[in-house]
Amino acid sequence: MTVIFQIPELETDRLRLRAPHLDDWPAQCEFFASDRSRFVGGPMTAEKTWRSLATETGHWALRGYGRWSLEEKSSGEYVGTCGLWEPDGFPEMELGWDLMADATGKGYATEAGAAARAHAYDTMGRTTLISMIAPGNDGSKAVAARLGAAFEKMFTHATFGDVEIWRHPAPEALK
Fold this sequence. Notes:
single chain, alpha+beta, 5-stranded antiparallel β-sheet, 4 helices
C-alpha cells in the first residue's frame, strides 16, 4: 500500500507553516523534556517525542489536515507547531499551538493560529473551531482571546483530564 498526501504550505508575514520533518525533532525533544510541555502531555522522553512527531505527521495522512511546523522566515529556525487536530477522543476539530521557549512573546502563536483558522474556514469550509486549553495555561488562553475565541465550557478528556473549551468566532464574524 502506498500512502501519498500533500501538506499545504501557508505563509504569514513572519512565518512559514510547513510539513513537519525530522529536523524538527531535536527542538521538540528539548520542548517535551521541559516543564513547558506540561499542558500538552509532557514532559516526555525522546522516544515518546519521536512518537508524537510521527503521530502529528500521520494525522495528515489519516484526516487530510493537521498541525504545521512553524518556521521563522527570516532565520529558517523551527519555532513550534500550530494547526488543526482531531484525534479520537476530541469533541470536535481543535486549533492548537505549541511554541519553543525562545519563540514565546513574539505573537507567533496568534499569527500562525489566524492563518490555520483561515485555512480551516476558507479552504476546508469549516464553520467552527475550538481550542482545548488546560485550566492553568494562561499563555494559551491569552492567544485564544487575541484570536477572538471565548471560554465556552469545561470538557473532561480521557488523557488530559479537565480542559477548557474556547470557541473561535464563526467565519462570518471575522469579516
